[in-house]
Design goal:
The protein is of the alpha+beta class. The strands form two sheets. It has a four-stranded antiparallel β-sheet. Strands 5-6-7 form a three-stranded antiparallel β-sheet. It has helices spanning 16-22, 82-86, 111-114, 135-157, 161-187, 225-230, 255-267, 269-288, and strands at residues 123-127, 189-193, 196-201, 207-212, 218-222, 232-238, 248-253. It is 36% helix and 14% strand.
Amino acid sequence: MGTPSGPPFDPDDPDRGRRDRDTEPIPRIRPEDGPGPRPGPAAGPPFSDDVGYGDGPYASGGSGRAWVRDPEAAYQPPQISEEELAGLRVDASGMPLGPRRVLPLEDEPSSMVARYLFPTERYRGEWKRHWIHLTTPILVGVAATFVLGYLSGFLAGQDVGALTTIAVLLWFAVMGWVAWKVADWWYDRFILTNKRVMVVTGIVTRKVAMMPLARVTDMKYEQSPTGRALNYGTFVLESAGQDQALREIKNLPNPNELYLRVVEEMYEPQAVEARLGKEADEAKADDGA
């Protein structure tokens, strides 16, 4: 027989005890041993062959089940308030029973807008730009009134009638420009139908830009702090990454309301038709009563 491998036995070796503990076999834990201290070189959590899920998040004891997490113990069902449920309930026709988020508009387009709609197109609404759109013309008019008024009075005292007349004519020209801008704002329209969105601008030279709803790939609106305070915003429409005539529409009023209308028309046209049909029936019933 050969000699055993490894270092020779040394009774004074300081690491002898550690090596003996590391190489000592761990005894097998049997279910019939019951609870209590286990033999072994070190204490530890008692595990056995029948480890399984306990009755709570953790379980231990004589059943042999110990330190096992129950994945369903931490689950809590969602809590939904009555106000949230009210917004989800619908009637037999599929209409929501909660408060409506889309405000009613005129049923018929104005005469200026009607000329741009074809017979099978469903009108959904038209909007003028927010009055903030007139900020620059109004400020120019107010400044011209003060400056030219003061200049006219000063020139009148200097006995230079020709320059006074020029100052007055210049004031009339500025006021005419302001009136033109106000009229242009009044006739501008953002129009929504079940087929497209349009922007109509201009008084003498009319410009009509439109984008089919089916080609709108992305839509967003932006509000500055002033826009949030005064309730206006800028809409940005994207169509397949191409430059479009109708891409950015500035200073539109009630941007959240308008956003809901456009998105609903793009994704839930049946709901729009159902709501409008129900409103028409209610209006007829009120007229009959």
